[in-house]
Amino acid sequence: MYPKNAWYVAATPDEIVDKPLGRQVCGEKIVFYRAAQGVAAVEDFCPHRGAPLSLGFVRDGTLVCGYHGLQMGCDGKPVAMPGQRVRGFPCIRSYPVVERYGFIWVWPGEAALADAGTIPHLHWAVDDGWAYGGGLYHIGCEYRLMIDNLMDLTHETYVHASSIGQKEIDEAPVNTKTSGDEVITSRFMENVMPPPFWQAALRGNGLPDNMPVDRWQICHFTPPSHVMIEVGVALAGKGGYDAPAEFKASSIVVDFITPETETTHWYFWGMARNFKAGDRVLTDTIRTGQGKIFSEDRAMLEQQQANILRHPERKLLALNIDAGGVQSRKVIDRWLAREQDTTQVAA
Predict the structure, then answer these.
(1) How far is the CA of 254 from the CAs of 83, 134, 135, 294, 319, in angstroms?
(2) Of 93, 107, 177, 207, which shows the fewest CB atoms inside 10 Å?
């Protein structure tokens, strides 16, 4: 259901400070912790008695099992244990892990295939002209349903009626194209009134919130499960998407969707913006508003998943507005087929 030979966001650095963190990624139970040389990730299984290592602690950069004190190396090899000889113990699995762009990335597949150079470049994370604020939700639905949701924003009119939804979203034509493994869905609305969320963003950028705007939504899916959405509004008649910065409020909705199981995932959400980057109050305001919006998605998606599980014999229908999700699933299927072929060759 999900490719394993890929980089996934597993955590944020603030989750891994002085304690280990247990998290399941693509069916793999992993413990993350800060070793002497940086973040490490190993199987969340003590080779002594099978206790979760995530229930232990970190001492001097070494992971210590909280059951009997077995000390583990970041390569998965037992190092020491009080009064015992443990160097002959079997190793547990270690995982390639990288801290970059304000996230902890893990490769849950074949370690020999991991290349840190393939972690997507996030320009907004290294540019002082941009600000980012986000959060994490655990969501009780399979990760592809979230991708479907983000690649078709028609639902905003209904699920997010009080914040970012408006009837013009339904009325605007949708364009979907595929370039290699990237799927892009776009929608442009001209001369519309900004909904409440964008009214607040306009005010935050020192622009009037009661004038018509040109609005855009450009959704970019890249495998295994990342969706970046260019969103924004510009005062009507100033050039829309290409309007000068002084006439618009625009940003990138950041969505890292990390499968946990076949019916649950970790959702790292946020927004990167290139206006008033130093305004932390504005960052917090946007984060709060966006968190409410995504909580509405979570409520809908979890009920959708429950309904699907109750009726496994029913086939979901696809309309033209679903093209972005349909094409994204085709890309995922190609990755899964390629991964399966590689596994069969190795066997």
Answers:
(1) 49, 8, 10, 12, 25
(2) 177
Nearest to 108 by CA among 345, 339, 270: 339
Rg of the chain, C-alpha, whole Å: 22
pTM for the complete prediction?
0.95
156: Cα separation from own chain's centroid: 19
What are the b/e assignments for 174-185, b being 16+ CB within 10 Å?
bebeeeeeebbb
- Which whole number is the average pLDDT over 42-56? 96
Question: CA neighbours within 13 Å on the CB side: how many for 128?
Answer: 0
Please, are residues 322 and 280 in contact by the beta-carbon 8 Å criterion?
no
| pLDDT tens digits along 255-303 | 999 999 999 999 999 999 999 999 999 999 999 999 999 999 999 999 9
In degrees, to the nearest 5, what angle opens at C-alpha 174 toward C-alphas 269 and 287? 20
Q: What is the pLDDT of residues 97-124, one digit of tens each?
A: 999 999 999 999 999 999 999 999 999 9
Structure tokens at 336: 């899964």
Find tokens 């009037």 and name the residue. 208
CA distance 347 to 337: 15
pLDDT of the residue at 134? 97
**Number of residues assigned to the chain:** 347
Nearest to 91 by CA among 23, 25, 35, 43: 43
213 vs 84, more confident: 213
H or E element: which one contains 202?
Answer: helix 196-204
